[in-house]
Amino acid sequence: MKRVYQIFSGTQKNLFKQIVDHIGYFKSLHVTDIWFTPFIESPSYHGYDCTDFFKIKEEIGTMKEFEDMCKKLHEHEIGVMFDLVPCHVSNQHRWFKEHPEYFIWSDEKRGTQKAYGNLDQSSENAWHWSEEHKKYYYAPFSQYMPSLNLDNEEVRKMLVFTARFWMNKGVDSFRLDAIIHSHLNMSDSVKFFEWFREQVPVYMVGEAWSDYYTIGRYSSVIDSCFDFPLQGNLTWSTRNLDFLGLAGDLNRTFSNLTLFTSNHDMDRIGEVLGQDEEKIKLYLWLNLLFAQGQHCLYYMDEVGIGGTKCMDDINVRPEIDWDLICKQMFTPDSILREYLRAVRLIDKYEVLSDGKIVRVECQYEYQRLAIYKELEDGTRVKIKVQPSNKNLDKAYTVASFCGYDIVIAIHQPVL
Which of 180, 162, 199 is nearest to 38 (CA)? Predict the structure, then answer.
């Protein structure tokens, strides 16, 4: 199981030192990789609008601290995932003034709608006027974040150089930001990331916030994409305690996708579930069990913190609260302790952590959902989510919350 722990870098002071001081905590979570959102120079706190690909923000740390952290993490068999933003930069980046050919221009204002999560409130359109160049430039997220022309050879060379630069510093893999917005059509976009993966032959997971058709196009050319449909449906199902509707996405999802608890662009899962500890525990169990070899935990989801999106999303991107983590670590019935119990059980059996979903069943008369996961050697597990008050098989119940049991049964192949 590839277990990624996402940390929002922009709100963390002395981040790299913090990580080194708490490596034991990440090991207890069975983390295999830590994904750092952008920590390079940027006019914003979030860092997705960089002005320098190679300089770290002073408040986050130094290059030496980053390299030392990478070495320490590697000593403990934890990889470093760099959040690469290939589609846009800040309009304060020197390229925007010195190299207009690095960007996407039009003489006319096209009808292209802005992207989901757009930071501008003044316009619904993705094209913005440049007084200096007397043209419109493409910027679907914000007028302050012009999109790069990824068909330009110099831009391509610089992105490959950037990836290799950070690999030389200790980075092992990349999360690719907003990949569906890299081009004006999907075919060119998919071709670009297929090319990029060939140039930079390391693990890559992409953010393709869309439907399964679109996600499937991208996940066929890079290692993985995040499973937005299943994550959203699982959140809704847990909030409403209605799990039969999950069958559709469980049947449609791809085995190489990465299921995740939440992320920096969403309301916190604790908030969505009404700070109901039982529902949060149930959600985390199912989120882990439905993953197929790749999983991502957004920092402090394991302690169930709340937080609602706002204009700059700062409420869902707080500083790491090590005191809260410590408190829950020593509280027997806490959300964190339940998460640790789930991880330890799941990682004890390879079919639970790495098995692929091969079959999904809905038993409407019992309100029971069953999924089957299987390894290549034929080992199979049946995972059931069923009401506790029904006269159903409970011999292998591993957890019970909110009137629902999670039941598993592992079957070894007959040799």
Answer: 162
Q: Which residues of the chain have pLDDT under 70?
A: 112-123, 414-415
In whole angstroms, what is the distance from residue 390 CA to residue 131 CA? 68
Instruction: Please identify which residue in the block is written with the tokens 């169990």.
Output: 285
Is residue 414 within 8 Å of residue 387, measured between CB atoms? Answer: no
The residues with which 105 forms a beta bridge, in sequence order, are 137
- Three state DSSP letters for the chain: CEEEEEECHHHCCCHHHHHHHCHHHHHHCCCCEEEECCCEECCCCCCCCCCEEEEECCCCCCHHHHHHHHHHHHHCCCEEEEEECCCECCCCCHHHHHCHHHECEECCCCCCECCCCCCCCCCCECEEEECCCCEEEECCCCCCCCEECCCCHHHHHHHHHHHHHHHHHCCCEEEECCHHHCCCCHHHHHHHHHHHHHHCCCCEEECCCCCHHHHHHHHCCCCEEECHHHHHHHHHHHHHCCCHHHHHHHHHCCCCCEEECCCCCCCCHHHHCCCCHHHHHHHHHHHHHCCCCEEEEECCHHHCCCCCCCCCCHHHCCCCCHHHHHHHHCCCCCHHHHHHHHHHHHHHCHHHHHCEEEEEEEECCCCEEEEEEECCCCCEEEEEEEECCCCCCCCCEEEEECCEEEEEEEECCCC
Q: Would you say 358 and 374 are in contact if contact means Cβ atoms under 8 Å apart? A: yes
Nearest to residue 158, comparing CAs of 203, 221, 200? 200
Dump pLDDT digits (tens) for 193-239: 999 999 999 999 999 999 999 999 999 999 999 999 999 999 999 99
Q: 362-390 pLDDT, tens per residue?
A: 999 999 999 999 999 999 999 999 999 88
Give residue-wise pLDDT tens across range 116-128: 555 555 567 899 9
Residue 40 structure tokens: 């390079």
Q: How far is CA 188 from the centre of its chain?
A: 24
Cβ-contact 254, 302 below 8 angstroms: no
Q: Write the single-letter amino acid at 254.
A: F
β-bridge pairing 224-225 and 204-206: parallel
Q: Any long-range contacts for 272-276 (C-beta under 8 Å, 24+ apart)? A: 272/235, 272/239, 273/235, 273/238, 273/239, 274/239, 275/304, 275/306, 276/402
Output the furthest CA–CA distance in the chain (Å, rounded). Answer: 73
